[in-house]
Amino acid sequence: MNLYEHTIVARQDVSPSQIKQLTEKYSKIVEKNDGSLVRTENWGLLNLSYIIKKNKKGNYIHFKFKGTGRIVVELEKNERIDKNLLKYLTVKVKKFDLETNYFETKEKLSKEEIKNNN
Fold this sequence. Notes:
Blueprint: E1 2-11, H1 16-32, E2 36-52, E3 55-67, H2 69-81, E4 85-93, H3 106-117
Antiparallel strand pairs: 1-3, 1-4, 2-3
């Protein structure tokens, strides 16, 4: 089985309930095609580097899963027709980085640093 990291960017005006539905929809596609979902992360509303379809921001959802290339084909086929999505990207990786949380708030990070220094 191959290891994949998959990120989707939803429109900025998508509600939290719609984000949850998107997450469930694409998680089910992975599981339906004999893949196993390792982790799902909601990175939240972030600024885009450039305007995409009149959006300056996007809601990022990140999946880490194990599976075959057939899952990637199925995911991208569904994402191509989804009106709530702006972009998507799938990357095949050799190993998952499960320890680092790149989008953790600065407050949480500073509290952890204080604990580690004491």
